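Mods, move this if it's the wrong board.
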Amino acid sequence: MALHRDRMDINCDMGESFGNWVMGNDSGMLPHITTANVACGFHASDPITMLDTVREAHGHGVMVGAHPGLPDLLGFGRRAMNITPEDAYAYVVYQVGALQGALQVHGLELHHVKPHGAFY
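Not the wrong board. Structure tokens:
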């Protein structure tokens, strides 16, 4: 049996700016996507960027997912790190919890989780 889809998910990584450092054109992409993977602060982003990205995504009807990474801001989460499974679990719980807080401010729920960089 063939599956038919009425729509296609267009997904984008975003919320990767940090302080005065701007990474990407999130505002320009949001009108064209359906789901967003929002960086959660370890490989990129900060609390202000996370809150702003969630607010803007909500305004465009974009579903938001967490994009947790390794604690490697200088390497953008792409360097291999020697961590235990317990470390990995704690890193994901912490980062997803931070994004869930930003989502709750807007009455939203987490849509998905997509690991970043060397995390997978």
